[in-house]
Design a protein that fits this description.
The structure holds 2 protein chains of 2 kinds. By secondary structure, chain A is an alpha/beta fold. Among the domains of chain A are: about 260 residues, Rossmann fold, CATH 3.40.50.10420; about 70 residues, no CATH class. In chain A, the strands form 2 sheets. Chain A has a 6-stranded parallel beta sheet, sandwiched between helices. A 4-stranded mixed beta sheet of chain A has the order 8-5-6-9, sandwiched between helices. Chain B starts with a strand and ends in a 7-residue tail after the last helix. Chain B is about 50% helix and about 10% strand. The chains are: A alpha/beta, B alpha/beta. At the A-B interface, α1, α15, α18, α19 and α20 of A face α1, α2, α3, α4 and α8 of B. Bound molecules: iron/sulfur cluster. The site of iron/sulfur cluster has 14 residues of chain A, from α14.
Chain lengths: ~475, ~260
Amino acid sequence: MGGSGTSPARGRVVDLGMPEFPRGAARAVADSQLRFNLRKATHTIRGKRANVVAELPDWLELRAAGKAIKDHTLRNLDRYLIRLERAVTEAGGHVHWAADAAEANRIVTDLVKATGETSVVKVKSMATQEIGLNEALAEAGITAYETDLAELIVQLGDDRPSHILVPAIHRNRAEIREIFLDHMGEWGRPAPEGLTDEPRALAEAARLHLRERFLSTKVAISGANFMVAETGTLVVLESEGNGRMCLTLPETLISVVGIEKVVPTWRDLEVFLQLLPRSSTGERMNPYTSTWTGVTPGDGPREFHLVLLDNGRTDVLADEVGRQALRCIRCSACLNVCPVYERAGGHAYGSVYPGPIGAILTPQLRGMASPLDASLPYASSLCGACYDVCPVAIDIPTVLVHLRARAPHPPAERTLLRAASWVLARASRLAGVQRLASRLRRLIPRRAPGPLAAWTDTRDVPPVPKEPFRDWWDRTEGGAE
Amino acid sequence: MRVALFITCVNDTLFPQTGKAVVTLLRRLGCEVEFPRAQTCCGQMHLNTGYPRESLRLARHFVDVFAGYDAVVTPSGSCTAMVREQYPRLAHNPHFAAARSGARRLVPTRAGREFAAAVDEVASRVYDLTEFLIDVLEVEDVGAYFPHRVTYHPTCHSLRGLRLGDRPLRLLRAVRGLELVELPGAEECCGFGGTFAVKNPAVSAAMGTDKVRNVLDTGAEVLCAADNSCLMHIGGTLRRQRSGVRVMHIAEILAQTEGRA
Ligand code: SF4
C-alpha cells in the first residue's frame, strides 16, 4: 500500500501515547462530570459566537477573503517567508529555520542557555506544545512557566490541555481551586489560604502568583497568531494581558511560529482581526492585541529570535485536498460546535490539536502509522457543523473523507466492504441478498454478537420487511391499482 | 414529467413503505414514476468509510442507470448529497480513485472526461423528495391529512449539505390535521454518521440519547425526517427505551390522505 498511510511519521507532533480514538472517547463519555463541563462550556461559547457573527452582514465575504488570503499566501509561501525573514532581520531580530521538532527544540534550548538563565515564562502557544518544548527545556535544566491562566491550571495539575483556546475546559471551578491550593506552592507563590472557588478569587490568586514570575524572569517564549511579511511584525491576540507582560517585560523574547502563520500585509491582517475574535471567544474584539517588530531600543525585549517551524507542514502543503488545513487560524470554533468533541473531550484526540481540526491536522503532520492516528479521520459523523463555522472555510468533512481513503483499513472491514460493493454492482445480486434476508427475518436477533453489538448495545435493529421494495414493484407493477 | 425513483439500497431493503409512499405521492401530483430495475446503491458508505475505488464503481453504475430521465427523485438527503456533491468531486479528481494504489494521474483520460461530463449531467437532475416537491413541482400543499403531533429532525446532509432550509417544514405545515412541534437542538447531529455508528459506538450512542431526549421533550407522537438511515438510529434508540414515539419518513406523512389515514 502506498501513500502516507504507512510511511514513518514525518512531522514530530508530540505523541501523548493515547489509545485509539474510540476507546479514549468511550472513557470520556462515561465520565458524567466531564460531559457536563464540556457541554456547558461549548454551548455557551457556541451561542456567543453565533450572536456576534450574525451581527456582521458581510461575514460570508470576510470568510471568503480570509480563505483567499491564506490560499494565496500558501501558494507563494517561499516568497513571503523570505520577505518576512528580511524584514525581521532589518528590524534587529534574528530568524532561525527549524525543519522539525527536534531542531526547533535544540535552537530554543541553545538560545536560552546562551542567556545563562534557567527559567523562562511562556505565552500560550500551540506550536511549542506541538514540539514538546517544555519537556525539552526541562531536560536541559530549564523550567518553563506557563502564564496563560488556563495553561497554568493545566501545568499545575500535571495535566494535558483539552481545548485549543480553553485548555482547561475539562475542569470546573471546584477542581481549579483544589489544583491551586495543592500545587501553586510547588511552582512559586502559593495560593492564599481560604481560597474560594469564586472566579474572581481564583483569578486573583493566579494574578499574584504570576506577577512575581513576570517581574523576575528574563527570558520569554511565545508563539504568534500572525506574522506580517511586509514589515516583519508578529501579532498575538489574547484575553488576559498576561501575554503582553511576557512579550514586553523580559530581556530576551523567543517566538516559535509555524510557517503557515505568515500573511502578506497589514491589510490582510485586518481581515483576520475581525474573523478570529468573533470565531474564538465570541467577542467583537479581543481585549489585548500585541504587535512587535524586531527590537526597539529602550522599549521591550533587547533581543528577539524568531524560530520558523516546518515540522511536517510542507508535506501537508503538497496534498491538494489536505493542504487547506494549513489555513487554520486556531480559533477553535470547530471544536465548540462539534458534537463528537463535546462528548469525547479533547484528550481522546491524543494530540495538542483536538476536535475536528485535530482530526485532519494530526494525521497529516504525524502520518497514520499509530492506531490512534489512523483512527482520527474516523472521529467524526461528517455532520458538517465544523465546516459551517470555520472562518477560513476549511472543508473538514471532505478532508476527513480524503484521509480515510489513505488510512490503513482493518482486513475484516476491507473484506466486508469489497463484498458489499460486489453485491451492489448488480441489481440481481442485491435482490438475492434481500430475498435471503427476508426469508431469515425472524432469525435476526435483537441483540447481535461481535462487531454488530456496537449497534445493538443501545439500539434495536429495524425489522426486515417481508418483501423488499423492488419485489413489491415487480409484483404490483409499481402499485398500479 | 418522466421521473425516476432512486429508492436507495437502505430503503429498498429495509423500508419499502417509504418507497411506496413516494410513488403514491408523486402519482397523486401527476408525475409518471418509473423504477429503473438495475439501480442499486449510490456508494456513499464506501466513500465515507475510505473506499473511493469501490464507491467509484457504484457511481459509474448509478450514472448508467439514471442517464436520460427528466428528474431523479430520492427519499434520502444524504444519498442526494452524495450524488450531487461527491460524485463530481470523485469524477473530476483524476487521482482520487487511484489514491490507494499510490498511482498519480494528473491528466484525466478521455474516458475519465466523458464520465465526468455524464456525472455533471445526471447530478444536476437528482433531487431530494422535498426539494423536488417545492422547487420543481412548486407545491406546498400536497393534499395530505395526518391528524397527529409531529416533530421534524433536519438531518445533517439535508440541512448543511443540500441546504433544504424550511422546505420540509413548509410541506408539513400544509398537512391538514398535523400539529407541528419544534424540536429543541434540531440542527445537532443525531450521531448516526454511517459506519461512524459502529466505529465510534460510545459517542454515537451518547449523541443518539441526547437527540432522543429532545424528541421526548416535544411530546410528539411522531418523529419524522427526510432520511431513513438517521431515523433507523434514532428510532432504534427510541424503541430500545420503549418510548412509544414512532418514527416515519416525511414521505409517509405526505402520502396520507383523509380516506387512507
Ligand atoms: S479549522 Fe477553522 S474553525 Fe477550526 S480552529 Fe481552524 S480556523 Fe477555527
